[in-house]
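Researcher: Structure for this, please.
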Amino acid sequence: MRSVRAELMLRWFRDGRKTLAVGSASASEGASYLVANLAVLFAQMGRKVLLIDANMRQPYQHTVFSLTNSAGLSDILAERVSTIQVRAVKAFPTLTVLTAGSPPPNPAELLARPTFDALLSGVEVGYDIILIDVAPAKA
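Model: Predicted structure, token format:
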């Protein structure tokens, strides 16, 4: 995992990029586990990390970090809440998680809205690294 982190630092984040989406072809391939571990590893380096759970059909990050899954990404994109509700991970002071939120009937449509782009642009100012856990290509 540390080798993956090092390669990402050299090849992706070095050029000024801050955001990386991680997904898989099929469910149960471990992409959510991978992105959670990467978030921890970057936080251990002292980087300010935001992990966004954008897998709204099968959210996982709230379970990994023992967080509540209310007022999350889907609620922001559907404009049910007005502010971003990130949750701190106690063991890692520089790691916060934006959970998936309430299960929506149309997750792909929510992610395609300009609101998602605006959200990402807005949070880039406050974080060094933003990791997004996305749904698998095949459900």
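Researcher: Any notable elements?
Model: DSSP finds six helices and five strands in the chain. The longest strand covers residues 92-98.
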